[in-house]
Amino acid sequence: xxxxxxxxxxxxxxxxxxxxxxxxxxxxxxxxxxxxxxxxxxxxxxxxxxxxxxxxxxxxxxxxxxxxxxxxxxxxxxxxxxxxxxxxxxxxxxxxxxxxxxxxxxxxxxxxxxxxxxxxxxxxxxxxxxxxxxxxxxxxxxxxxxxxxxxxxxxxxxxxxxxxxxxxxxxxxxxxxxxxxxxxxxxxxxxxxxxxxxxxxxxxxxxxxxxxxxxxxxxxxxxxxxxxxxxxxxxxxxxxxxxxxxxxxxxxxxxxxxxxxxxxxxxxxxxxxxxxxxxxxxxxxxxxxxxxxxxxxxxxxxxx
Length: 304
Ligand code: DHB
Ligand code: FE
Known about the structure:
The chain is 34% helix and 20% strand. The protein is α/β, with parallel strands linked by helices. Helix 2 packs across helix 6. The longest helix has 16 residues. The mean pLDDT is 96.
């Protein structure tokens, strides 16, 4: 139907293409996974954390994305100081759950999307991003805790995650980490890459990690509510400004592990307004302190 195609083209979409429908942002605190795995989510300490994700779980079940492009960081489980890729894209058919020292989390293995991932690699590398291509890796709490939070408990054997997941790992563990600017630009390149994939797929991009936390040293336990919430405002309304925040500000204001927040800029960069389209709408926003040593932040932005 040419008129439909013409109007979709005018809106920057073709009839058959992968497209970003929404972005999701969430902390990945490992103790959240432990609380779910040990059935402790109803304890007074944890109840308010999980309550903040109840609307998100209903929303995700309604949305039924075809693929989740999940931006996360590995914590020296798949990679180590031997090999430190800045941006590593998972192109495998599947990913096992990493053993982080206590055995793998009892959650389903992750099904990948090798065809779309290979296309993203082709497109993004030709768009001047030097991605590392990963054909085999295990995924740690950085990827599984956001899935557990958003999808709810899943039987490790009988269960499955709701759709294939493409892991996009980012080095934020060993300096030099990528700048916020580079992360935002990678998100923009990923959006362009999706738009040239000839299959009608609803894709969500998730940015994970953060918010303020510091796990070691004299400032261990640092939480900065005011800075976290101002940063969320900025991510929503002024993503280009948020991308200019220098590493030293994350570390000073949000603690040494607060630097994980640069990964949220990849998801944010994949939204329409960064490609000249309209601003997203805020579907859900949640902030809670504390969970383990960390402030939990969570946001769902929808394309309009
Ligand atoms: C904690 C948070 C993290 O992001 C992480 O990777 C490990 C531990 C914590 O709050 O305990
Ligand atoms: Fe972490």
